[in-house]
Amino acid sequence: MSPSSGIPQFRADRLRAKRLARGWSCEQLAVVAGITPGTVRKAEGGKVRPSPRVVKAIAAALDSSVDELAPVKGPLSLRELRARRGVTQKTLAAEVGVSTGMVSKVENGMHGVKHPERWAAAYGVSRTRWMEAWKTGREAQRRHIRARSRPDRGGPQ
């Protein structure tokens, strides 16, 4: 699977099972989802992670959800929540009324926010779920900084 793009938790086997349960071919699913048959085949083949836009389209076509096709394992970060919604940092920044740089800093746990309820609405989740995702990103950033600053890891001494 392509490690740099798409939804990491995507389950190709679930897509195939849902498509077959409908009695649809890859071509039929593609028509209903508004994507190409090749995109459906690639997603079902499990060799690539489909983009959030593709997973949303497939889920809608199958009367399913992103969570059914890509089940959540553990807490999600803000970046993962945004990706599952199929929204770019630019779009989210416009919704919240901040710069894309600020969205990046918040998603990376480098900056807090004054109005988490406004951010939660932009991410399409509750304030509680947004705060959990922010804390997940913050902890990941802390681990990253600590790992880079260890003398045995080649970081600053």
The shape is: globular
Could you tell me how far the N terminus lies from the C terminus, measured between alpha carbons in angstroms? 36 Å
Percent of residues in helical segments?
55-70%
Mean pLDDT equals 89
Cα-atom Rg, whole angstroms? 18 Å
Order of helices and strands: HHHHHHHHHH
Strand content: under 5%
Structural class comes to: mainly alpha
How many helices? The count is 10
DSSP summary, beta strand count: 0
For the sheet with most strands, the description reads: none
Low-confidence stretches: none
Overview of this structure, please?
The protein has about 160 residues and is mostly helical. It is about 60% helix and about 0% strand. The chain has ten helices and no strands. It has helices at about 10-20, 25-35, 35-45, 50-60, 65-70, 80-85, 90-95, 100-105, 115-125, 125-150. Helix 2 (about 25-35) packs across helix 3, helix 2 (about 25-35) packs across helix 4 and helix 7 crosses helix 8 (about 100-105). The longest helix has 22 residues, at about 125-150. The protein is globular, with a radius of gyration of 18 Å.
